[in-house]
Amino acid sequence: MLLATFINIVSSDCPELLTTITISDVIRFASLAAEIYTRTEGAWNMTLDSADDVIPFLRTALNSSLPTKAFRHLWRILFPTLSQIHIRPANLIQQHGYQSGLPESIPEFFLTPPVKKCLVCANPSTPEIRLQHRSQIDGYVYDVDGVHTARIYTMKCPKCTTHYRPSYYSEDGTRTYYSSLIGRNQVAYQVSTHFFMTHQLAELFLNGQMLAHISNFNLVNMFNLSYVNDVTDIPRLNGAPTVQPFISESTCRDALDIHCLLNRADACFGNLIVDTKTTASDQRYHDPMQQVLEWIALEGTKHRDHVCSACVQLTSETAENGNEGYIRAVVTDGVTIGHWRCTATADQLRELAVSDGLPPPNGPCTTPLARVHDCFCPNHQLRLGRRCHAQPCSQDAENGSATCGLQEHVDAYARFKARVKW
C-alpha cells in the first residue's frame, strides 16, 4: 500500500484520524499487529472481523490512549498488508549488519561506559572532567540464544589517563567494576577485551554446575556445539578478523567468577576491584572471593548452598604408586565457611537490649554457633533457647513441649512439623 493510498483512505473513511493519531501510533500498531498475524498464521484464522478479539490486547500492550474506534479503523485499513509489514529487526541486524560493502557495520549491541565524567578525578573543589572517546572495537556477546555481535566503546580521562570500559574503569593495572548505583549494565558484562556474557547465561551455567555437576569443559563444549560449530551466519568481526566466536574454558571460568562477584559486590564491598598487574590471570579473582567468603562468614547468606566455578575445578594429586586421582569439591555455606548465624530475631535482640539497659543493636547477631544444628549462639541459647517456637511469642515453652500452652501455637507448630517431616 502506498502512503498516498493510506492517506486517501483515512481522509475519506475516517477523517478524524488525521488529527488524532501520529506516525508513531501507526507504526507501533502495525508492527505489533503484524507480529500477531505472523505468529498465529495457520492456527488462528484471523480476518477483518477479528478486530474485537485483537484490539483489547493491542490497546493494553501499546498502552495507548487512543479510543477503540481509532483502533478499529486502523485494523480495517492495515489488515490486508499485515503479512507484508512483518519483519524481524534483530535477525536482520544479525544477518546483514556485517556484510561487506557497507559503509558502517551495524552490531547487535552497542556497549558504552555508564559514566561521562571521570570518577577518579572527582573533587568538589575542582570542575568535573569530561571523558574523551579513546577507541572502539568489535566483539561478541554470549547469551542464552547464541552469539551476538557488539561494538565496544572505551573512554579516557584527559587528566589522569584512566580508561573507562563498559563494565569497569582501569588505572595502573587495577580494574574497578561499576556498582549498580553508578549504572552498571544489568544485562551483560565484560569478561575480556572482545568478549561479554549476559547474566542470564551465566546463571544458566551456574545452575548446570550446581544441579547437574556439569564441568567447565563440558559447559564450553555444549555452548559451542549448540551455537557456534557449523553455524555459518555468525559474522566475523571486521576490526578483529582473528577473533573467533567460540567461547573458551578460561573465558567461561572468568565469566562465572565475575558474575558471582558482581552479584555480591553491592552488598559485600561496594565495588569489585581486581588487580591485573601483579596477580596471575588465573588468580586475579581470588582476593575478591576471599572478601566475599569473609563477609558470608560474618553476615550469613540467603542461600545455604553455594556454587561457583572454583568449586568444580579438578585438582590432581600424585599417589604413591604414581597414578593420579582427581578431586571435585562442592562448597556449602555454613559448613565450610564458619557456622550458620544466630537466628535471634530483631525483636528478640531489641527486647534483650531493653532489659539490659542497652541501646538496640544495629543488625543481627554475628556470634558463631557452637554447632551447625544450633539455632542460637551460646549467649542467646541461655536466654532464648526455651522460647516458644511459634514466633514472635515471648513465652517460654512448657516442659516437654516446643511451644507454650496457647492452643493456637500448639496447633501451628503441629502443622509445621507435619509439613516438614518429609
From TrEMBL:
Limits of the CxC6 like cysteine cluster associated with KDZ domain: 331-411
Source organism, top-level taxon: Eukaryota
Residues covered by the CxC5 like cysteine cluster associated with KDZ domain: 106-227
Descriptive protein name: CxC5 like cysteine cluster associated with KDZ domain-containing protein
Organism: Melampsora larici-populina (strain 98AG31 / pathotype 3-4-7)
Higher taxonomy: Eukaryota, Fungi, Dikarya, Basidiomycota, Pucciniomycotina
